Amino acid sequence: MEKNELHVVTGAFGFSGKYIARRLLDAGRRVRTLTNSPGRANPFGGKILAFPYDFERPLKLAEHLSGASVLYNNYWVRFNYRNTGGPATVPAGGRNAAQGFSYAEAVRNTGILFDAARRAGIKRIVHISITNPSVDSPFEYFRGKALAEGALTGSGLGYAILRPAVLFGREGILINNIAWLLRKFPVFGVFGKGDYCLQSVYVDDLARLAVEHGGGRQNAVIDAIGPETYTYRELVRMIGTGIGRPRPVISIPPLAGYILGRLIGKMHGDVMITQDEIKGLMANLLCTDSPPSGSTRLSDWIKANGAALGRHYSSELARRQNRAKSYEEL
User: Fold this and answer.
1) Which residues, other chains included, contact 159 with Cβ-Cβ below 8 Å and sequence gap of 6+?
2) How does pLDDT run across 11-50, given as a tens digit for each residue?
């Protein structure tokens, strides 16, 4: 791989894409990004040029990819959403979250992106998926991820598919919001027994893995997981201890947990958790039997960052509705 060759990262101003882009720049690569938020604060200054996804104009999308050898794809949506409120203000070229988004749209757009990459002469795609995807899954998130993987493996392009369960890092949502709940409430309710497992991976470990496989030649599918496995109950207790807010952890019915999460989400203009996320977690879909591919321990990271973790609620929809501020500012 030539040091100054061009690579494209989707969402380089967001979460995982930012870490991938930073590692590529540090390795001497030229980097371009595709994004729904070309007006968002650019942490890389003039080092990275931003272009819109242009899914409705596939030829234009291929033009944005032209000259690149590798595409790192982080594009996806966390849940189906149709906004019934007023429109949000976004910079020119951005996608308004008030327009809504869906898994079906994400699957369609991912196929368009892969077709545009092939047309543009991309040689290899590193695609971020999820643990345990299946076209037969009863959960649309995991089913959609499997369909997106199928679009890539059937494209004729070289690929590496990375399957993380949950990412953690300063801009992450799940771990932060568990900490926020622990700071705000005297007890923490887990869905049912809380004995289902979860494996998280540090976002920069995922970025390292992505860049390594961007330079590879063999097709690969890798479970991108960290070195620690926790039950959900253990995870909550560990976070509580790490931030200095140990709380009693009690079992609550999953439906009650969903209703509480929905109410809290509405208070923040967000979707805090979905029923499919609860069911997928309880079905042990966020863990695997694979050896760890990341080395950063969540427990160590919590100890190092506990003072700042959970000080503010992290909103998925705020990030989609405000396309100008960085994730750290929202």
Assistant:
1) 124, 125, 126, 127, 152, 153, 219, 220
2) 999 999 999 999 999 999 999 999 999 999 899 988 999 9
Q: Is the pLDDT of residue 88 over 90?
A: no
Residues 221-255, buried b or exposed e (16+ Cβ, 10 A)?
ebbbbbbbbbbbbbbbbbbbbbbebebebeebebe
Q: Quick one: CA torsion of 150, 152, 155, 158, rounded to 10 degrees?
A: -130
pLDDT tens, 249-273?
999 999 999 999 999 999 999 999 9
Q: Find, among 132, 241, 251, the residue nearest to 178 by Cα.
A: 241
Handedness of CA 250, 254, 256, 258 (dihedral sign): positive
Q: Please check whether residue 116 is in contact with residue 55, taking contact to mean a CB–CB distance below 8 angstroms.
A: no
3-class secondary structure, 235: helix
pLDDT of the residue at 95: 46
- SS3 category, 180: helix
Q: Are 191 and 160 in contact (CB under 8 A)?
A: no
Antiparallel, parallel or unpaired: β 197-202 and 229-231: antiparallel
> In this structure, are residues 298 and 157 in contact, taking their beta carbons and an 8 Å threshold?
no
pTM, 2 dp:
0.94
DSSP 185-197: -SSEEEETT---E
Q: Is 121 helix (H, G, I), strand (E, B) or coil?
A: coil
